[in-house]
Amino acid sequence: MVSSGADDFLQSAELYDAIYHFKNYQREGEYLRNLIDRIVPHAQTLLDVACGTGEHAGFLKQYYSVDGVDLNEKYLEAARRKNPRGTYRRADMTNFDLGFRYDVVTCLFSAIGYVRTASFAARAIACMAQHVRPGGSLIVEPWFTPERWKPGTVTINSGETNDGLVCRMALSHRQDSLAVISLHYLHGTRQSVRYYKEQLELGLFTEEEMVRSFEHAGMHVVHEPTGLIGRGLYIGTFPP
Questions:
Q1: What share of the chain is helix, strand, coil (3-state, %, to 5)?
Q2: How far apart are CA 167 and CA 189, in angstroms?
């Protein structure tokens, strides 16, 4: 049985950071810094789309003025605490207008997959591209392609929260062009152990669909196959 308060727990920044504590955000930030130095010399401003709890900004704020957007207000609150100088707004990546262009726009940790369809991915990339200044760059870390997705895979992650421990087990499926992930959580404290579950659906976009989305946005795009964690990067640039 799913515990009451599941939505609050599953959307909490504390849970997110506990589950993904294994990610080396400093190493990823250093990779991004070196990449940006090559493609956008003297970059000063960066927008992180689907910024989550703001862990990347914790490193990148040393070098850039970093702002962010996300749909989860609790994540945005955490991002504001980690980067008080940044401006963080609640926004849908497929339809937002901040009225400002940045030297670099990023969309990391496969967040693009949450739009679910290739047409919405194209809308998101076009929207992000509209926030890149001439000579700037859009950097998107993709979700898996259809041929790389492995249904039937079981994984487990665990971490510490302020009041105890959390464990998450994930089982992968596939439904047409969607990766479907069933997630099961145990949250243990001194008072109780509670169980929560949720299901995620992420779009399985081909390399051709991703490249076409950048091109339709008027950008030249390079696909870097390894990237931050082995999922690759799409690097779009506008002519100066």
A1: 30, 35, 35
A2: 12
DSSP sequence for 133-148 = EEEEEEEE-----TTT
pLDDT (tens digit, 9 = 90+) per residue, 165-202? 999 999 999 999 999 999 999 999 999 999 999 999 99
d(CA 114, CA 120): 10
Q: In terms of DSSP bridges, do strands 233-237 and 220-224 run parallel, antiparallel, or are they unpaired? A: antiparallel
Strands 132-140 and 102-107: parallel
Per-residue pLDDT of 128-162, as tens digits, reads 999 999 999 999 999 999 999 999 999 999 999 99
Domain ranges of the chain: 6-145+204-237, 154-203
For 87, phi then psi, to 5°, come to -110, 125
Main-chain dihedrals φ then ψ at residue 2, nearest 5 degrees: -80, 135
Which residue, chain included where needed, has tokens 């509670």?
194
Whole-angstrom distance, CA of residue 185 vs CA of residue 153: 17
Question: Do 6-145+204-237 and 154-203 agree at the fold level?
Answer: no
Structure pTM?
A: 0.96
Q: Does domain 154-203 have CATH number 2.20.130?
A: yes
Which pLDDT tens digit goes with each residue over 26-66?
999 999 999 999 999 999 999 999 999 999 999 999 999 99
Tell me: pLDDT of 2 over 80. no
For 200, the enclosing helix (H) or strand (E) is: strand 193-203
CATH label, 6-145+204-237, candidates 3.40.50.150, 3.20.20.140, 3.90.1300.10, 3.10.350.10: 3.40.50.150
What backbone phi and psi angles, to 5 degrees, belong to 83?
-140, 75
